[in-house]
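[Structure tokenization] protein backbone as discrete codes

[Encoding] learned vocabulary of local backbone shapes

[Begin record] amino acids and matching fold tokens:

___
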Amino acid sequence: MRLYAGAGDTDVSIGNTRTCARTLAGQGARVRVVEQGAVDHFGSLAVSAPQVVRLFDGVRG
């Protein structure tokens, strides 16, 4: 599982993302936090969305 986050996000802090990742990992999930730099909430979406599309395209093969 990948969680995408931006350090400049004031809507969902990157700390929440890290806490979520730790909680999920504690339940046995393989989690990766992908930090998108100093972008805000929608900036994180803009940077993350193409990465997610490429990830799914790769899985789809």
User: Anything to note?
Assistant: Strands lie at 2-5, 32-35. The chain has one domain: 2-60. Residues 2-60 form one domain.
